[in-house]
Amino acid sequence: MNAPAKGNGSLKLFAEAHVDGINKTTQFQLDPRIIEIEEGFNARPIDLDHAAGMMESARNGVAFPPVVVRVDAGRIILIDGHPGHSVRRCATY
Predict the structure, then answer these.
(1) Is pTM beyond 0.70 here?
(2) DSSP state of 66
(3) What are the sequence ranges of the domains in the chain?
(4) 43: region left, alpha or beta (phi > 0 left; psi from -120 to 50 alpha)
(5) Tens digit of pLDDT for each residue in 77-89?
């Protein structure tokens, strides 16, 4: 791995220098109610017991990984993180 020459470096500098294994991503905060679920995309049904456990964890302050979405013709469609999205939707009501 070649470190950027500038200073001690930072993750941003490593990503900009295209160091293998380091990528920069951007995160946005979205109201989970505007994220659409594509019919038939999530191969597994939501396990209600698992979702209930996740809701309890959320009430206790556990943070879940961000969901991954794609934008298609102005629609925001969920592609990864279906259980966490379900918990976030329930928490917004």
Answers:
(1) no
(2) P
(3) 1-27, 31-91
(4) alpha
(5) 999 988 888 888 8
